[in-house]
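Trying the structure run again after the queue cleared.
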Amino acid sequence: MSEVYADRRVRLRDRCAATGSPAALVSRPANVRYLAGGSPPGAVLLVGPEPEADVLLRPVPPGGEPVDGRLDELLRQQVLPTGGGDPAVAAVDLARRAGADALAVEEHHLTVARHRAMGAVASAPRLTDLDCAVEQLRIVKDEDEIGCLRIAAEIADQALGELLESILVGRTERHLALELERRLVDHGADGAAFPTSVATGPHSGRRGHRPTDRRVEEGDFLSVCLGADYRGYRCEIGRTFVIGTTPADWQIELYELVFAAQRAGRESLVPGAEYRDVDRAARRILKAAGHAEAAVPLTGHGVGLEIDEDPQLSPSAMGKLDACVPVTVEPGVHLPGRGGVRIDDTLVVRQEADGGPELLTITTKELLAL
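Done. Tokens:
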């Protein structure tokens, strides 16, 4: 894996050099992990003018503290002395000593005070904005990353499948969410990818609903959204069911509508497709049925080391899909006072010759009565 991380740092170095910055300072933890294999608390990564100048600066020595990931064993590390100050400020001085006349930094992650302290280093290199260069590198995943997402999806499918086999009536949203998160860990996840959402009755179909003490009742819509974190890679799955009885006509109609929208979104996941066209493919079906105002604000988003990363599949998003980009497709409709439907899958964009979009989350999308 050391070669993988070294290659990622080379790509970032080349990108920075092309814009006139021979070095970069990465402070956002997910980006540090992407380039270094791990992200110790408080650590920053200096990508120097040459590979030999790359160094991870950390405020405390390796010890018992938890580290997200497993650090590149060939990457040089430097531990600041006790009371040695901010690793980012120390990295600026290192870049100066390495001969960098400009240093690209993640302004979107830095506080104003930290940026000022970095700029105040004696003879500091000129600070430029790295912008979201690392986030852009992270969009297209290699097969090892996709493999981790595939396992995360399998774990989420297992946890959800087991829940569907249990008795649900009378249990609270909060209890079901906690049980799902326990099952994720039982099946090998490092934890939940995000707070698990369980929504019943009038709460169902809400995006990001926080579970309450409302109990599951006969005839309810039950919408569930969960994801597993496996080796730092996070997937997402969402399904909607009916509890204990034959679905009402309005429930069947609404479910079939959202299912059609989700299918349209999935089928539009082809390399070269505009982000906003994927959103439009799903949204126009909901809009034609008169549910434009009740639809979720975006159709999907990228997943990886974070559960919500680029690309954003929204009405105003700019850009085009590449192959090997994992995204969610998650349209939904919530009707105030009645409830709603949300269907959510994680897929990987693939060339048509490779079979088209690869579906990672495979729990049935049939409207089941549980």
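The first strand starts at residue 23 and ends at 26. Worth checking whether this holds up in the mutant runs.
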